[in-house]
Model the fold of this input.
Amino acid sequence: MKTIIRNVAFGLLGLSVSAAVVAGPAEDRAAFQKFYENRFPDTPVKDFQNGVYSILPSAREQWEEIEEFPPYELAIERGEEIYNKTFANGKSLASCFGDDGAVRGQYPNWDKDRGMVVTMELAINECLEANGEKPLKYKKGAMADVSAYMSYNSRGQKVNVEIPSDDPRALAAYEMGKEQFYTKRGQLNFACADCHMHTAGMMYRADTTSPAFGHATSWPVFRSKWQAMGTLHRRFAGCHNNIRANPYKAQGEEYRNLEYFVTYMSNDLEYNGPAARK
Amino acid sequence: MNHGLKALTVGLALSVSSAFAGSGTTADHIEAATAAYKQVAKETGYQWTVTVKAIKAAQKALDAGDDQAARKLAHEAMDLVEATRTQAKLESENWKMRVPK
Done:
C-alpha cells in the first residue's frame, strides 16, 4: 500500500514539475510574481523595483537618505558627456538612440534578424563600433556611466520585454535564461533562485538577500561594496564568483539570456535606474 | 540527495582518486587534472573557481620543489572536477523542480 501511495505521489510530483517546465513565459511570469506576492504580502507589487529595500524597512530608511544625495549623480554627468561626444565621423551616440537616450524600456529585446537577445549595453557598443569608435568594457567605467545617463532619462518607462511567439529561437533563449536562473552552480551549489527566490529576505552572513522580482529595473547601480558604478552583468559575474563558479563573459549569450529571463519576469514594473545599493 | 546517490558520488571520487594516485609523476597528475577540468567545462559548461586555484597551487608547489604537497593538490583538483561533473549531471534535471507553479 505504501509503495502505491509513494508511486502515486512521485507521479503527481512528476506531472506538476513537468507542467511547470512546459509552461509558457506568460504562465512562468504569473507564477513567479505570485510567489513573491505570497512571500512578501506587505510589499506593494510596484515596490519590488526597489530591490531589498522593498522588504527591509530598517535598511530602507538609510537608503532613502542616501538617495537624497545619490552617489550615482556624477556617473550620470559623465555619461551625458560621453553620450554627446562627437565621434570622428561627426556622429554621436545620440545618432543611434535619440537626443536623450531614453531607450531603456526597449531593452532587452529579441533581434529576429540575428536570432539573439540584444541588451542596451550591447547596443551601445554596436553603435560605437558601427561608427568606427572603440567599444567600452561592459562591467564598469564609461559603459556604466553612459548606461546610467540613459537609464536616468528612461525612468518611469514600463518593463515590457516580449518573447515573440513566432520565433522559436526567442523561446529557446528565454528557456536558456530560465535554466540559468534555477540551476545550481559552483562549489557552494547555489542557484540564483536559491538566494533570490526560495530564501529571499533571509540572512546570508550579514546581508539580507533581495527578491529577484524587480531585480532588473534599477541598473546600473552604485554599489557601496564596489564604491563605484557597475552594470547588471558585473553583478551576475560577482554572484557567480561568490558561489565559486567561473563567471560567464559579460554580454555573452549566457548572461544576455539570463537578463532576458530576469527582466521579463519583472514586466509591468518600472525602470528606475540608476540606483544605490549596498 | 539520497543515500544511493551519495554513495555513488563518494565511490566515484574515491575510485578516480585511487586510480589516479597510483602512477605517473606529479607533473602528470597536474596535467591530468587540468585536462579533466577542461573536458568537464567543454562538455557541461560547469567550471568551479576553486578547481583552477587548486591546479595553480599544485603547479606552484611543484615549481617550489614540494612534490608531496603538489601531488595532494592535484588530487584535490581532480576530486573537485569529479564533483563538478556530478553537479552538472544532477542539475540537468533537478533545476526544473525549483520553478514555481
Summary: Residues 25-94 of chain B form one domain. Residues 38 and 46 of chain B are 10 Å apart (CA to CA).
